[in-house]
Amino acid sequence: MRTGVTTRTRVRARLPLRRLAAAAATLYERLDDPRFEPDPGADPAAAEARLAAWRETVADGDPERFVRRVQWDGWTPERVRAALGGVRLRAGAPLPGWAAVVGDALRRLHARPASSDELFLPFVEAGRARLADHGSLSPAAMAALEEALLHRLAADFAPALGVERAAFLALHPGAVEARFVERMRRGGLAALLRRLPVLARIAGVRVRHWVAASAELARRLEADRAALEQAFGALGKVTSLRADLSDPHAGGRRVCVLTFASGVRVVYKPRPLALDAAFQSLLARLNRWGAEPPLRVLRVIDRGTYGWCEHVDASSVTDADRFHQRAGMLLCLAWVLGGSDLHAGNLLAAGEHPVLVDLEVMFGAPLETASQDDATLAAAYADWSSVLRTHLLPGWRAGREGGAARREGGLVPHGAAEHRDALLAGFGRMYRLLAYRSAELLAPGGTL
Question: Residue 56 has what pLDDT?
């Protein structure tokens, strides 16, 4: 106990949280947040150097262009210069929530971590302490959410921690990882955050977002349980959870797959699913109109700002001919609806069914700009009119920064090139069905 108290005291002394919060303040906070005020002890030369670097970056050093740039936000160069020189929290102003999280986490850093990743367990503990209620989630589900947070924090810290480790090993040749981790525990992590205050802010904000998103998931699950059971049958408690299955959405929220005691698995998506629900409704309508072979229709619950979707168990293709006929039908439908970005991660194979699982890019159109000449505009429309625009068919994409080109497309992993006849048959079948039903599809208040 004595050792723990000594460590916590040392951490507080080495990481003054109010100065850390000021150092990590954004430009908007420095200029417009009443909690901050100019620091009279700031170095004016540093402010001038930062202003010059910003002017060079956004205006190629042109003073007049730079003035116009800062005026967009209602500022003047003089006001910006004062903010760039340094700010401090006003006396009596509350500590930002993220800084309180960082302070709490470092006070918990008294156990001996076995690896560098475990250095961030105190941040997870600080988040857990702030998560008041998660009654709908089992301990196993909570453990999965906490593990996802730990991995994100480790990724946030990885570049800086890599530099620290290299410097430590250079000074202590032959040192084992455990010595480095212990050094970080005994003040090294606090010193790192003092040098990199924005990294401290990233960690604190990450934890706060995790708390908000986890509590929100638990609340939404309870509120929608009746609707979920009506759509998917008996559920029971959430027994396991897979997190971090998508790009982050508002506030770092991500797609999760929840497994219930009944064995049912449901996908939680923290974004509007109105388009997804409408697309599944369209598939059901097309099936009733005689789509052959019929397409798989997923159950979707749209809740406005979020929703739930039937989980698709990916499996190997069981009937290549019928699979690619359906793929051709979906290719035609996506092309007609202005769909794009349907790469391999957004198309799953489930037996003889190809299933589109992410429709964020649908009903698109090429952008026109005043600088485009007729030839450029015609080329843009020609590209958009091609079925290649869907990204379902195999195509080549240039590598980044001179890297090798790569072949990609939603159907590439499933041998689309070897099943061209089936693709063409499905495409033609869907084209004729849409053409035959076009009046009903396009009528005001109709299917589309």
Answer: 94
